[in-house]
Amino acid sequence: MASPPPPSIDTSLIPKGRVSITPNLLSKQQVEALLKDAKDLHRKGAFVPGGLRRRTKNSSDNMKTTTDATTRICDVCGIFDDAESAGPSDARDDLLDLMADLRELLQKELGIRLSESMELQYLRYPGNDVSGERGGKDYNSKRGFYGRHFDSSPEDNSTCRRKVSLLLYLNDQLWDAKKDGGVLRAYLPRQQQQSQTATKRKQHRHELDPEEESGSIQDITPQGGTLVLFDSASVEHEVLPTHRERWAVVGWFLGGDNIASGQKRKNKRGYGTKSATQQSHHSDEDQDRRRKKKKRRRRGG
Which pLDDT tens digit goes with each residue over 22-49? Predict the structure, then answer.
């Protein structure tokens, strides 16, 4: 019996500064395969502390990565560099096929041009019930989090600007937001919030309630298989403290106006940029095997 077709992805919310959420994009088996790959890489030491990307002074292209535990506590593994050097993975190959398909979908439905290069990582937030592989009671007692931030800036004119942000959760379906924490909290875009606030003031001529003044929020539970997409420069967001390990794939599709296909750039660990369709390290036989597997997946087999 064929598997049910994958759920449709609503991209119409992205240009409106909203969050597109697609539950169960991945099957339980696909989630488990990616999670196993991520945990294997973590055991091999392929993860590094998550850093913050900051633009270097007087430069529009160069990024400096720093670690700031007061703003972010998590581990990352660049899928195009750290993971690749640790060895091949069928689950990772399927993930790259999915990224290539998503890129085509976003270009078609949003009418934008995206680079064939992208940033793609495994992402792990620690929980205070996790026993230690990474060295020490102090480390494992920390809860993961990521403070309120944007993934990109509208004023960013660099050639590798993040355009669409992506999250693909690898946790189980029983994730309890109240008990386990780790909720992704998205905030109303500033321009839209200011516009709505001004309109209400003009129409009602009264002082707004505090909740109205601060704008609306949207909380997303990181259940396994869920895909999240949003505009990188429009949606401010944060990850609330985690009470148990929280796993995901995180990625950014890059603006393609000035980017050559398959362009590479120098990266620090965990921040590799490469084409999701670039598979030069595979033999012709491997390429054929992957094409057949992708065709079966699209048929639901």
Answer: 999 999 999 999 999 999 999 999 999 9
Residue for token pair 């990616």: 34
CA-based nearest residue to 275, from 167, 118, 121: 118
Question: What distance in Å separates the CA atoms of residue 188 and residue 44, rounded to the nearest whole number?
Answer: 39
Q: CA nearest 30: which of 253, 288, 293?
A: 293
78 SS3 class = strand
Residue type for 27, please? S
Residue 215: other Cβ atoms inside 10 A: 16
Q: What does the pLDDT look like over 75-96, one tens digit per residue?
A: 999 999 899 888 999 999 999 9
Which segments of 117-189 does DSSP mark as H helices, in order? 137-140, 177-180
**Beta carbons of 219 and 183 less than 8 angstroms apart:** yes
261 near 275, Cβ under 8 Å?
yes
CA 270-171-297 angle, 5° bins: 85
- Distance CA(246)–CA(183), nearest Å, equals 10
Q: What's the CA gap between 100 and 116, in Å, rounded? A: 8
- Exposed / middle / buried, residue 136 (Cβ in 10 Å: 0-12, 13-18, 19+): exposed
Pairing of strands 48-49, 72-73: unpaired
Q: At what angle do helices 28-43 and 90-110 cross, to 10 degrees?
A: 120
- 122 closest CA partner among 300, 228, 271: 271
pTM tops 0.85: no
**In the numeric block, which tokens belong to residue 55?**
């633009």
